[in-house]
Structures
1.
Amino acid sequence: MRTSGLPVLDKLINDFSKLPGIGYKTAQRLALFILKSDPDYVSELADALLSVKENTRLCAQCFNISEHELCSVCADRRRDGGLLCVVEDVVDVMAIEDSHEFRGLYHVLGGVISPLSGTMPDDLHLKELAERVQANGVREVLLAINPSTEGEATMIYISRMLKDSNVRITRIASGVPLGSHLEFLDTATIGRAIQTRRDL
């Protein structure tokens, strides 16, 4: 392991390198930027990190991130409660919201079924999804799950789980290539996929 000769700086570099997509060189640049920054900025950054950890939670209804019991989407009475979009993670909610094409509510699974990774149906918010569909007058469930092998398996599982619930089950359509992730797509592509969804 490379070192700077300063243990305190090495620790910061090592901590930055644990972030997704951050290699050693980028971690080193970030650490040196912090080292050279104004103390007030560093203090504000540290406070922001602590605040986001201490003051956020999962929405009690959809499992999106929130500062309150309900997230801003679930608390918005203008949203269409009969249209439920099921996503893999909170970052997918952000991507779809940026497209401005969806006016329903969300349900965040917290992952996809992946036996090889040890993620089974009971590890996801699937039971809560079934309860929401039965209790809240949902008329359509839109599956906006990343089109990976695990994502496809999860969508099949959900469609079978909800087959007797008398709701329309759709999935996002073309425009989302196989193996891609919603967070990396442009808003026009996501919007087109929402508009051209089809029955599953």
Note: The helical segments are 7-17, 24-36, 39-54, 90-99, 126-135, 149-161, 187-195.
2.
Amino acid sequence: MLGPECLEAAIGPDPSLPEVPERDPAQRARVATTVAFAAAVISTALPWSRFGAGSDVFGAWSDAPAWSMVAAIAASLGLVISLVGSFTRRASPVGDVLATLAGLAVAAACVLALVRPRPFTSPWLGPWVALGAGLAATIAAIGARIRSRGRVGVHV
């Protein structure tokens, strides 16, 4: 039986530990942003009105200009921005800000699509799903920006 004072002589010097790569504290929030924007893009395939223009599959992408088209374009841009940011080792703060703005644009366009629908139509499932996804993307992008600045978490 060896005591701690004799342990180094018996087994050798303390080996150096391997370097642990630095982990981005905002990675989970950025993944949540990407998932939320993907849900917003998928929601553009849902019917955006009960009848009339936008009541079929891909209701947000109809021929007549409407707020649903603004939400669809903003959701697509947000998804591209968040995917580009996920391929970099450490995402830039500009990507987080752009994702936040895209999420706000999706949410605002959805609110306007609900309050001011196309003439002679009634909003249905699409704007509600896209509104939730846009708000989730906005919150996640803000969370990613805050975590990347080091305001949340314990630093040892």
Note: Confidence is low (pLDDT under 50) at residues 152-156.
